[in-house]
Amino acid sequence: MNDVKATALKAWGELIGDKDPSAVDRWVSPDYIQHSPTAGPGREPLRQLIAGIPDGFHHETHRVLADGDLVALHGTYHGAGPTPLVAFDVFRYDTDGQAAEHWDALAPQAATTVSGRTQTDGPTEITDLDRTEANRALVTAFVETVLVGDDPTTVADYVSADTFHQHSPEIADGLDGLTAAVAQWKSEGRTARYLKLHLVVAEGNFVLTQSEVDFGGPAACYDLFRVADGKIVEHWDVVMPVPDRLPHDNGLF
User: Got the DSSP string for 214-233?
Assistant: First the structure.
């Protein structure tokens, strides 16, 4: 485990696991930049948020990626309401080992999915570290060409025709499942457009992207891809509508 990942997990354990507001001073920069709609900027709003965490609240961590000074967590929040929240959290750490910036997206856990998989199950082991940059390039090109560029004719250049396991609630497995979902959305008059790729976090066989989208309204979309043998073979996502108001001026991106 690299240093920034170990630091992030220790901080996360004290902040969210132990629910310790005093941990904010140890693990969060005084100049903390917040993009989440759940809290304002700086340390004090985070202290207040942690102090108000209800009994029974906990975070189930499924995957953790580290990429330079960025750490991404894929998990489920339990106890924040009647329905668990599937989430991606991304932190940027400074040279002092403190969280300097945070982005996230949360969505209610779906009761069912078309594929029969959950939104979080599947492989978790990070492998192929020597392929990190190649996998980053593949996924970046897929998002920019197929999704933002709206060119489905090239999808087979990036996504495996043999294995494409899907965890997005409305999409079935395989390339056919993806094509059918897009066709269904169009027939229903639902907008599904990727506008801009903002952030990429890659480690080994996993690549996470953060994009600005129009899914019937402005939203943030986090897509996690697993890559094997040079092709995308698995996909998870969280889509969160952009709120009308944020408790800061930093935007979601």
Answer: ESSSEEEEEEEEEEETTEEE
